[in-house]
């Protein structure tokens, strides 16, 4: 089984690449969605998050409002690190369990899509790392149209991640997402074929 770590900054195009990889036959694990499982009431992480950040991050039904929490942690690097220290271990444990299941199933290729692959130390979980990169203008445009964030908020989220240059230097393969959707898909298919041949 080959495990690909798919990383890249916010708005770079990870979701589209993951979609193409699914179509090509890969099993895709989206780390952000797994992390959100730890926000559910009743989990240890939920209790730790509420204990640390207070009831003001909860909506009327007692569920963590990720938007409110995001506003807090992306304006304060120390608080963001505290949140990551709660969420990342729980997420990694779930992913490690899922990888064991996929190995038993005989899966050929598993992709872990995770924005902060290196920051979390999860490059140890994968066999090869792909990073997707895009221009600052393209990223800002995509993020604003997708989530309605203001320029300052996009900047704060980008600043919270490893730089593009660092990711490219550390990764095994770089996909550049500055062209058309078709060009992006072609790059993914070429990279996929190289994995199949290795």
Q: Remind me, CATH topology?
A: Rossmann fold
User: Which CATH architecture would you pick?
Assistant: 3-Layer(aba) Sandwich
Query: Radius of gyration from the CA trace?
Result: 17 Å
What is the first-to-last residue Cα distance?
Answer: 12 Å
CATH homologous superfamily designation: P-loop containing nucleotide triphosphate hydrolases
Global shape:
globular
**Low-pLDDT segments:** none
Mean pLDDT: 90
Q: State the helix count.
A: 10
User: How many separate domains?
Assistant: 1
CATH class: Alpha Beta
Helix content: 55-70%
The helix/strand order is EHEHHHHEHEHHHEH
Biggest sheet descriptor: 5 strands, parallel
The counted number of beta strands is: 5
Structural class: alpha/beta
Name the strands of the widest sheet in spatial order: 2-3-1-4-5
Q: How would you summarize what this structure contains?
A:
With 198 residues, this protein is an alpha/beta fold.
Q: In terms of topology, how is this protein built?
A:
Blueprint: E1 2-8, H1 14-24, E2 27-30, H2 31-37, H3 44-53, H4 66-73, H5 77-105, E3 109-113, H6 117-120, E4 128-133, H7 136-147, H8 151-159, H9 164-170, E5 173-176, H10 181-197
Parallel strand pairs: 1-3, 1-4, 2-3, 4-5
